[in-house]
Amino acid sequence: MKLHQIGELSLLKEVRKRFSSENSNIIIGIGDDAAVLAPQGEKILVTTDMMNEGVHFDLNFIPPFHLGFKLVSINVSDIMAMGGKSRYLLLDIAMKKDADEEFFWELFRGVSDAINMYGMSLLGGDLCAARNDMVISATVIGTGDRIVRRGGASVGDKIYVTGTLGDSACGFALLQRLTDESREKVRSSELGTESVFLTHNSELITLNWNIAEPLLMRHLMPIARDSAEMAKHATSMIDISDGLFIDLFRICDESNVGAKVYLNKIPISDEMRRTAEIMKLDPFHLAVSGGEDYELLFTMPPDCELQVENCELRLTCIGEIIERDRIVVDENGMEQPMKAEGYQHFGSAR
Amino acid sequence: MKLHQIGELSLLKEVRKRFSSENSNIIIGIGDDAAVLAPQGEKILVTTDMMNEGVHFDLNFIPPFHLGFKLVSINVSDIMAMGGKSRYLLLDIAMKKDADEEFFWELFRGVSDAINMYGMSLLGGDLCAARNDMVISATVIGTGDRIVRRGGASVGDKIYVTGTLGDSACGFALLQRLTDESREKVRSSELGTESVFLTHNSELITLNWNIAEPLLMRHLMPIARDSAEMAKHATSMIDISDGLFIDLFRICDESNVGAKVYLNKIPISDEMRRTAEIMKLDPFHLAVSGGEDYELLFTMPPDCELQVENCELRLTCIGEIIERDRIVVDENGMEQPMKAEGYQHFGSAR
Fold it and tell me: How far A43 CA lies from chain B's nearest CA (Å)?
């Protein structure tokens, strides 16, 4: 059924039924003019991020389930980057009247899976028609105690990242090069242990699913990294959304410091290295400026290293905070100026 | 200058400079991954509403200044409808790369005027490119003590509305019928004491600016009604966004009661009555189902009447809560079933 055959009110009623949650801190949830919370004395964190069709996502590539999941994750990632815990979600959705009801509920299933995974509740939102492109926007409210800002890095601090970098950008590049048939299988989640096929310079290349999957999934439905352990010791933290270097520049700007990063220390997954090679892309370029990693980038005094050893995430020291300059040490040990490459909306060079 | 010549980061830097606010409850404002607040023990209210080009607004009709102001107001109105006080704003803006910088800052000037008027601070947001239509979305966080829900109305309560109804819908109808020249003058705020011209059935009609202005302004930049006085006594409250009857139905649904409304008690401004007559529109239809009034609709026990007498807003009792039925008493004293007419996204009859 199409959304215009159902109507906003019936959809909202159903959303309210599916998402009503038992939580002692929620005085009023979905269904009134505003939601009402009883704060428990902790600090309150708030962030918002929107995703626009044709800019942030292409519905030919990303299935609605993954899109809903990703919208929650990218907002949760911002709360994590402050050392907070995500608690509540507000959701704005604008989509065409002739959109399928199935598409709508798949999107909500993605949102639902994500908020359950992160231990959050849906508090409310707005559902309305769009004339053309679909737009989704989320606000996440979290709580926290020790807040980690971007501006606390000091000279001598070590620079760390979680996970591996460039997987998402490589996954996106792969998604664009898949054959129509393989892409359709990814979209419909029909793939299991099969291979996917991509074309490069009119050549058909086979790639094992176990190599392609982590890259595609990191792009399609990233999981925000839990910062609980790092937040105890980090002096500064940010999540890598626009690219390692551009986000490291933000820490340097706010902290009034410089940074030295060793290219050969940057964690790159085997899957990414191999797939980038097949597509003739530079894995380092993907890792430092690909963006949408949603890994955490943080700084820590050198003597804290042992204390985060029991963190379940892979943590890699990629360099250190220095006084002023922003330097990359390349594979040959040569120092180069670091360039803040990454994604910027409205695409200016300034 | 166009936005793509400036770039997201420069725009954000400027927004941050203009909107950085001194407020002891804001621990971290604009410019980090998330904003951080220190709650002062009050309940926290949250609401979100989005506005889409081609659905909620037409840039041929509404100037960017008014659009920015209105976005804040419609969200503040939701907080007011709960008896809360609006404190913080988060703003999501998606617009085309080739949009003018002037348009952008006019939008922000409207946002800025509104948050100053309501005593709020800008906490953060997201700024990004849109492929086609512009989309703006706001989340408002407020605080409150005595929260007024939709579901508290009891049999015998009187039904009240603030202000006059239908002005916004009438103003919108007028805006659509203005001559190009008059509309351009409204857009560019060049009008003072002049008249505006509209066409009806190919006939050119002159309308005094002092009649047209309150209707146009109620549509273009509504001011949310302060609920502080009513919140002390109201048993239920909602803001009229979709139309009097549809929003009264919401109170009835949540409160498990009926309602009787007297058509001749519904407050209609002289300006609206006169302008509707010129356009051959039914003023009562505009008043009960026009929508976008952003007036408050609330219920109160009969013995509270005297206590809100010193409220600065015009308050009108339009009927009373009854057991089950939803009835309109028409101009001739005849009882008719009330119909929940009003705007619904995805436009279904269900």
Answer: 5
